[in-house]
Amino acid sequence: DDLTDPVMVFANENDRGRIAARQDDGPLYRLWEVAGTAHYDQYGLVQAQDDTGDPETVAQWFETMRNPTADPVEGFSCAVPINTGPATFVMRALIRSLNTWLVDGTPAPRAARLETASTRPLVYKEDEFGNVLGGIRTPAVEAPVARINGLGQPTGGAGVFCFLFGITVPFTDEQLVGIYQTHENFVSAWNDATQSALRAGFILEKDAEDLQAAADQSSILRMSAF
After folding, report:
1. For residue 122, what is the enclosing H or E element?
2. What's the half-sphere exposure (Cβ side, CA atoms, 13 Å) at 140?
3. What span, in angstroms and rounded, lies between the C-alpha atoms of 63 and 61?
4. Rounded CA gap, 113 and 128, in Å?
5. 87-139: per-residue pLDDT in tens?
6. CA–CA separation, 16 vs 7, rounded Å?
C-alpha cells in the first residue's frame, strides 16, 4: 500500500513462493495468476526466438499443444513433454495494460486468483481434464485440447531445470470427440473462450484473431484426421 507507481505481477502455476506473498489488488497493484502456465515453456524456448508477430507462429504454438516434446532444444531433455501454455499471449496484454496505466492512468483489469486446495504443500484445484481452476482463463484451458500444467514434471532427464517447465498431456481423439463431437463445435468453444479473454483485457485483439484462425485451420476433429 506504499506504491507510488503502478505495479503488475505475472504469476504462473509453478512459482510456488508467490502463493505466500499473495496480496489483494489495490489502487496501484495488480496480480495476474495465469492458468496453464509454467515458469518457462515451449514457446519461450523455440517459437519466441523467431516470432515477428506472424499468424503462422501462433499456428505453430497451437500445434505444440497437440504434439508436445520432452526435447525442445538440443542438449535439453526432460522426462515428459514440457508446458505448451498460453503465457506469451497474456504477458503481451499485461505489458500493454501496464503501459496504458502509466501513460493514461487507466487501471489494468483485475484478475481472479488460481484456486488452491492447499497452499502448504501447494495443491491446485483442477477441472475434469486436469487443468487448474481459477486465474486468468484463455482458450488453452477453457476449450482445451490438452492437459497443460505448471507442475508435474518428474525429476530426472538431462535438463536440471526441468521442474520449471511443467507438462503437457494431449487429449486423445476419443477424448476430443467426447468433449466437442465435431470440429465446428470445437472452433465455436475456442472462439467463445478467446473472445471472453479479449473482452476481459487478458489477450490482445491481434492475438485473438490469430488464435481463432489457428483453431479454425487446425486438424482437431476433422474427418480427414481419422
Report:
1. strand 122-124
2. 34
3. 5
4. 19
5. 999 999 999 999 999 999 999 999 999 999 988 888 999 999 999 999 999 99
6. 20
